[in-house]
Design goal:
The complex is a heterodimer of chains A (452) and B (163). Helix content of chain A is 46%, strand content 4%. Chain A has 452 residues and is mainly α. Chain A is globular. Chain B has a five-stranded mixed sheet with strand order 2-1-5-3-4, with helices on both faces. The termini of chain B are far apart. The chains are: A mainly alpha (452), B alpha+beta (163). Chains A and B meet through helix 15 of A and strand 4 and helix 4 of B.
């Protein structure tokens, strides 16, 4: 009996010591407030910081809809609750006006705020830890010279007990690998520049890499993830794009929001492209070089064959659509069965005037749907989101307009439309769950306008 | 044969089910308020209401409309007895060439059915899909505000009586 008690006591001591050690490891001291107001920075450094902030797209998570830039309030939905991006303008009371550069660097590298609190990994310090000292200094100079906006931060709405910040420390113990990006000497300087930006400040993997149950990115780098309820498609060898991406297409997509073999940027990628406007060409080319290499070593002949096959398939499927009521549909075979479906009638009346080859849209013409990633993805989420809400340029931006059909079509009609589009324009198996996904997404989409 | 409920009247239509509603309204039913502008969902001249939601009738095949409640400007009132939105557009002279007016009025009607007293920002946001090339936007905004006031005022006695 005594043995049992001794054993239990030993276990308790081990747990206490372990927790004490963890607590000591997790404890961070406050960094004294610095009076940064009126601090002067080299204009060249500020300009460099502005470009880095554009690559990192800091403004997206740190600006609420209709709010002042960087003053915080954006609701980032996570499986663990909602996190509101904080105010990172140099306001001393509500922003980061009292943060020294050392405090800012600690936040970027270790996810700890000036007062010593652990920050949740919704702030992607697992990527930002790779940034160089000089880049972090430039970002600091840029943020400290923004207009200070007094705007109090919204408290986080995390599922208890995750609101206990020590959980963030535990997460770091398990998943955070600190360290500045180390160039790969076997690769070109451009590849290394791209890898540094993509895996660091641009944090592309935060959306495009799947996450495990703890919210950490898995080892399936760029294997496809979620962003604000949209699929962030895989960028690696399992990319659903019919035509394999190459560096030229990636560059065009990031520069103009449009690539002629892949289509227009939509959903959460729109603000990313908008932000990248402030980034110089050389950095976008570097990013494109690295991303195009992510899908692994490519056999040029094989890429060429897949490209030609995808273009030919898309063209052939365009030919079998009957675009206008006056044109008789195909009368035999599986094409005839497709054209007789309710989805085909909806496509002919609602979509074909723009999406059929030879469609009348004079500018911003859509690509052939056979080349579209949302049509070829294993999950119908993105296509249904686009049908429900359409595509609209960001306020003040130019860009294509596709009207949303949420008010015009019922759930059942949208499900039969996307099922038809899938069977007509992709060589992929049918989506078994289109009905359920439409219902789910419509419930999570706010109604067009309700009384205040 | 498809039966459409238009402005409360069941209408038998003998047309290809893929035909967009706009062509049926104008060519088959002679309801000429809704206009063909671009045919691509970019301008809003063809806007009508389906189950209280403004939609582009140029991009809506009649196959999806059986059993749904379709309204056009003809259902808002007549030249002799204009409805509140029509009256507000007349009083504010919210048109120059008038080509966009039918779509504008239907979208305004849809807005006010969802939100009886919208803010200026909400009006601008909601009306943004409908274009006017003549530059009467400020008058249209005033007309929507006027219609909102008129409709709210006309509701008040009813609310009083129901108390």
């Amino acid at each position: 009996m005594l043995m049992v008690w001794r054993l239990l006591a030993a276990v308790v001591v081990v747990i206490l010591v372990g927790f004490g050690a963890f607590y000591a490891w997790a404890w961070n001291s406050e960094i004294p407030p610095a009076n940064s107001s009126g601090a002067s920075f080299d204009p060249g450094i500020i300009a460099k910081g502005a470009k880095l902030a554009a690559i990192g797209d800091c403004a997206v998570c740190h600006t609420r809809a209709g709010g002042k830039p960087y003053a915080g309030g954006f609701p980032l939905e996570t499986p663990f609750g909602t996190i509101y991006g904080p105010n990172i303008t140099p306001d001393p009371q509500t922003g980061i006006g009292l943060w020294s550069e050392a405090a800012f660097r600690r936040a970027m590298r270790s996810g700890v705020d000036r007062e010593g609190n652990h920050l949740y990994p919704a702030f992607p310090y697992d990527h930002f830890t790779k940034a160089t000292d000089s880049d972090i200094s430039a970002l600091y100079a840029f943020l400290m010279t923004r207009e200070p906006i007094p705007q109090a931060n919204r408290p986080l709405a995390l599922t208890p007990p995750l609101n206990w910040r020590l959980f963030a420390a535990g997460w770091k113990l398990l998943f955070l690998t600190r360290g500045v990006y180390q160039p790969d000497p076997k690769q070109s300087p451009e590849w290394n520049r791209g890898a540094y930006l993509v895996t660091g400040l641009a944090h592309c993997g935060a959306c495009h890499t799947p996450r495990d149950t703890f919210g950490a990115e898995t080892d399936d780098h760029f294997g496809g993830g979620m962003a604000e309820g949209w699929l962030a498609p895989a960028l690696n060898a399992s990319s659903p794009a019919p035509v394999p991406w190459n560096a030229d297409q990636i560059y065009a997509y990031l520069r103009n929001g449009f690539a002629d073999q892949h289509g227009f940027a939509a959903g959460p990628m729109q603000p990313v492209v908008h932000s990248l406007r402030n980034v110089q060409d050389s950095d976008l080319h570097a990013i494109a070089t690295y991303i195009s290499a992510v899908s692994g070593p490519q056999n040029p002949a094989e890429v060429d064959r897949r490209t030609k096959a995808a273009l030919e398939f898309a063209r052939s499927r365009d030919m079998t659509v009957s675009p206008k009521p006056s044109v008789e549909p195909a009368t035999t075979g599986s094409a005839a069965t497709r054209q007789a479906s309710p989805g085909a009638a909806i496509f002919a009346g609602a979509c074909a005037s723009c999406h059929h080859s030879g469609g009348a849209l004079p500018i911003s013409r859509p690509i052939s749907l056979g080349l579209s990633t949302p049509v070829n993805e294993p999950d119908p989420t993105n296509l249904i989101r686009i049908v429900l809400g359409g595509i609209h340029p960001l306020p003040g931006d130019r860009g294509p307009i596709m009207p949303g059909f949420a008010g015009a079509l019922t759930d059942r009609q949208i499900a039969s439309l996307v099922s038809y589009v899938r069977s007509q324009f992709s060589g992929q198996p049918a989506w078994p769950d289109a009905d359920d996904v439409v219902t789910k997404l419509r419930q999570s989409t706010p109604p067009p306008m309700e009384a205040p | 044969m498809i039966v459409l409920n238009i402005n409360g009247n069941p209408q038998q239509v003998d047309a290809d089910p893929r035909t967009p509603l706009l062509y049926v309204l104008r060519n088959d039913l002679k309801l000429n308020a809704a206009k063909f502008g671009c045919g691509l969902g970019q301008c809003g001249a063809c806007t009508v209401l389906v189950d209280h939601e403004p939609v582009f009738s140029c991009l809506l095949p009649i196959s999806v409309l059986e059993g749904r409640y379709i309204r056009t400007v003809e259902g808002l009132g007549s030249a002799d007895k204009p409805g509140p939105v029509q009256r507000a557009f007349i009083e504010e002279q919210a048109a120059q060439c008038g080509y966009c007016s039918a779509g504008m009025m239907m979208r305004a009607q849809g807005l006010l059915e969802h939100n009886a007293s919208p803010t200026d920002a909400q009006i601008r946001d909601y009306m943004a899909t409908n274009l006017c090339r003549c530059g009467t936007q400020m008058r249209i905004l005033r007309a929507v505000r006027r219609a909102a006031q008129a409709m709210t005022a006309s509701l008040e006695p009813v609310q009083e009586a129901s108390k």
